[in-house]
Amino acid sequence: MNENLNELTKEENSVVDDTVFQVVGFKLGEEEFVIDILKVQEIIKMIDITPVPNAPYYVNGVINLRGKVIPVVSLRKRFGFEEREIDNFTRIIVVEIDKKLVGFIVDRVTEVLRIPGSSIEPPPPLVSKVGSEYLKGVGKIGDRLLIILEIEKILSTEEKKALNNSL
Q1: Residue 157: exposed, middle, or buried by beta-carbon count in 10 A (0-12, 13-18, 19+)?
Q2: Are 150 and 41 contacting, i.e. CB atoms less than 8 angstroms apart?
Q3: What is the sign of the dihedral through the CA atoms of 165, 26, 99 and 50?
Q4: What is the pLDDT of residues 46-105, one digit of tens each?
Q5: Are 129 and 135 in contact (CB under 8 A)?
Q6: What is the pLDDT of residues 131-152, one digit of tens each?
Q7: Could you give the C-alpha distances from 39 to 54, 131, 136, in angstroms and in order?
Q8: What is the pLDDT of residues 17-57, one digit of tens each?
Q9: What is the rounded distance in angstroms from the CA atom of residue 89 to the CA atom of residue 73?
Q10: Residue 91's domain is classified under what CATH number?
Q11: In angstroms, rounded to a whole number, what is the distance separating the alpha carbons of residues 148 and 38?
Q12: What is the pTM of this model?
């Protein structure tokens, strides 16, 4: 009977059971995050970022990507991580949020992964330095824990408005 209860509890705690999610993995420090690959427009090497006056503290500025001006957000700043120098591994992940393109600076992009829905659980309260309001869940692949970001929630509605107004 305990085994059945454990299985039931496990199923109730999983976000989705039979779906496989394809995600893009990246690192901030030693923490490994993933975002839905369908949200990713492209991944680019660091390019010159033009600072924008009066932009929120976590916005490094804007880039010109094939004629489009795209705001660039430092995920390190946004999540309260210590700053670090940009190196050859630093990337900008360009994503679409509310039909607008935004670039997120990450330490390194790791890989594209497939995570079975059955291995995804809701985020525990203290899984990372990142607030749980930004998390969709935690995926387990082997002995790795992957923090699944809810990319639309990284910026609040007010922050999206402030970002648009400052550009």
Answers
A1: exposed
A2: no
A3: positive
A4: 999 999 888 888 999 999 999 999 999 999 998 889 999 999 999 999 999 888 899 999
A5: no
A6: 667 788 888 888 888 889 988 8
A7: 28, 20, 14
A8: 578 889 999 999 988 999 999 999 999 999 999 998 888 88
A9: 17
A10: 2.40.50.180
A11: 14
A12: 0.82
Q: Which phi and psi angles does 58 have, rounded to 5°? A: -85, -5
Residues 6+ apart with CB under 8 A from 29: 81, 82, 84, 107
Range of the domain at 103: 2-166
Number of structural domains, the chain? 1
Token pair 């957000």 is at which residue?
73
Confidence (pLDDT) at 25? 96
Contacting residues for 91 by C-beta, under 8 A, at least 6 apart: 26, 43, 44, 45, 46, 105, 106, 108, 109
What are the tokens at 131? 């607030």
Nearest to 76 by CA among 26, 146, 137, 150: 26
